[in-house]
């Protein structure tokens, strides 16, 4: 099962905020994270993990539908490295 934006907002609402406030706070949090990543800054949430932007160089690729070779441009990707606390918590749950 996937946790959706609406479900996160509903859980915030359960803490005593209105649905409108919850949605706005969640929107603000996501904008802060997106802006930081866009500016090349890492986002570290202690006890959870770290979001980073990494640069990937150009590379040779292949179109799987036509099997044609192609050249893929350089790009930036977001990676996530989970914290040791989160890793231990998830592995303990199994």
From TrEMBL:
Gene Ontology terms, MF aspect: DNA binding; structural constituent of chromatin
GO CC, alphabetical: cytosol
CDD domains assigned to the protein according to its UniProt record, in alphabetical order: IHF_A
InterPro entries in alphabetical order: Hist_DNA-bd, Histone-like_DNA-bd_CS, IHF-like_DNA-bd_dom_sf, IHF_alpha
Pfam families, A to Z: Bac_DNA_binding
Keyword DNA-binding in annotation: yes
Top-level taxon: Bacteria
GO biological process: DNA recombination; positive regulation of metabolic process; regulation of DNA-templated transcription; regulation of translation
Keywords: DNA recombination, DNA-binding, Transcription, Transcription regulation, Translation regulation
Assigned protein family: Belongs to the bacterial histone-like protein family.
PANTHER family, per database record: DNA-BINDING PROTEIN HU, INTEGRATION HOST FACTOR SUBUNIT ALPHA
Stated name of the protein: Integration host factor subunit alpha
Organism: Desulfosalsimonas propionicica
